Amino acid sequence: MKFMMFVCSDSEPDEDKSDDIERWVADVDGNGRRVLGSALAAPESATTVRVRKGELLLSDGPFTETKEVIVGFDILECEHLDEAIEIARAHPMARLGQLELRPFLDLDHASDD
Q1: Which of 5, 45, 94, 102 has the greatest count of CB atoms below 10 A from its CB?
Q2: What pTM did the predictor assign?
Q3: pLDDT at 113 over 80
């Protein structure tokens, strides 16, 4: 089961900054659970794309009015959500920011409801 893990900044990080992102990457890569991951450029480099009534609308920088922004991502291959949670729990940004786990939708088995 694949999960997208959004790595987000946080306005209230934990004070414990002893974790090392390179060690986390090596551990998760080593056990074959990390498919792909990367840090992202600064939010100011973002471009938001929308189409409304046929008109292309572009916005520079982050569109949201929040202090938390997505700073990176990882795609995880796990047996189930509990395994993905354990992997996310060990990520340094679990203490310095926040992580959102979201399963990929299995379009082959999605209902037509």
Answers
A1: 5
A2: 0.79
A3: no
